[in-house]
Amino acid sequence: MARRQSQTLLKYLFNSKPNPNPRFSRSVTYMPRPGDGTPRPVTLIPGDGIGPLVTGAVEQVMQAMHAPVYFEKYEVHGDMKKIPEEVLESIRKNKVCLKGGLATPVGGGVSSLNVQLRKELDLYASLVNCFNLKGLPTRHQNVDIVVIRENTEGEYSGLEHEVVPGVVESLKVITKFCSERVAKYAFEYAYLNNRKTVTAVHKANIMKLADGLFLESCREVAKKYPGIKYNEIIVDNCSMQLVSKPEQFDVMVTPNLYGNLVANTAAGIAGGTGVMPGGNVGADNAVFEQGASAGNVGSDEIVRQNKANPVALLLSSAMMLRHLQFPSFADRLETAVKRVIAEGKYRTPDLGGDSTTQEVVDAIIAALN
Fold this sequence. Notes:
The protein is an alpha/beta fold and 369 residues long. The chain is built from 12 helices and 12 strands. It has helices at 2-15, 51-64, 85-94, 113-120, 176-192, 210-222, 235-244, 256-270, 300-305, 311-323, 327-343, 357-368, and strands spanning 40-45, 69-73, 96-99, 125-131, 144-150, 154-164, 167-173, 197-202, 229-234, 251-254, 277-281, 286-290. Keywords: Magnesium, Manganese, Metal-binding, Mitochondrion, NAD, Oxidoreductase, Transit peptide, Tricarboxylic acid cycle. Residues 41-364 form the Isopropylmalate dehydrogenase-like domain. Residues 15-36 are annotated as: Disordered.
C-alpha cells in the first residue's frame, strides 16, 4: 500500500506542470542539514583604531540574531613584532577568523602583521566585493565587481635590502604555482556564483617575465572553463576604465600589489571602503575583514566620536556565516544591513550622515525583526 502511494506521489510530481500563477508558487528555502545548527567557534581579533568598535558591532548583531557562532577573542596590535602563536593556533583550530584592521607602521623596517597573518596561514586569495547599495548615491550604477588578488608573493614578498647607501633593491617574486592557484580560485568563484567574465590585470608589457608568467598561468586555467569569458587588461588602462566605466567588470584576478590598488579604487567607486566586505581565503583557513584596506583603522577623531562605519565588517561577517554554511543567517543579516542603508536615516559621516556606530547597530538590530 505504502509503495503504491509513493509511486503515485512520484508520478504526480514528475507530471505536474509549472504553476502559471507565480504568486502561489513556492520559493526555494534553506533547510538546515543535520548538524548545521551546532555553534561554531570563531577567532576574533578586534585590532587597532576603529577595530574594537566595528568588531563590537558584529558581536552585538550576532547575539541579537542568535547566530550559531561564538568568539574566541585575542588582543593583537600592529606594533607587535609578530602574531602571537596562540592566535595562530586558535585560527588553525577554528578554521575561521574575524578581524578588525591592524595598523601597519610606515617605513622603519617593521613588517605588516596583516601580511604575516596571510603568509603564516597561507591565505593565498584575497576577495573584495565592490557593489552599489540601494539608497547610497554614487557616480556609477550597476557596479558589482569582485576583485580576487594573489595574497602571498609579488611585491609583498618582503625581500628588500640596501645594496649600497642610497640604493635599495626590492624583489618581486611571481611563481607559476601561486599564479595558477589564485587563477583557479577566481574561475571557480565565477563558476559557482554565476559570474560571466574573469579579467586578468597585469603589466606584462613592461614586466615581461614576472607578469608574463602570471598571464600565462591565467590563460592555462581559463582553457578549463570554456563557459566563462576571459579578458586581460594592463593595470594602467584598468585604472582608467574603472573610474570611467566600472560596470564593464565582473570578476578580476590580479597579482598582489595591483589587487590592493584595484580593490580600493573599485570600493571608492561603489560607495566607499566603509561598506565593502572581504575575506582572505586559503586551503584550510579563512580570515574575514573589511574588504578595502584604506581606512580600515580609521582616525583618532572617528574613534573618539564613536562614529566608525560597521557596515563593511557586518557584511564581511555575513560572508563568514555563508562560509560556515549558515546561509539563512547570512541572508537575514545582509537584508537588515541593506534595509538600513536604503532608508538612509542612520549613516556614519563617511556616508554623509552623522550617526554613531551604536546608532547604526541599533537600527540594524531593529531591522532584523
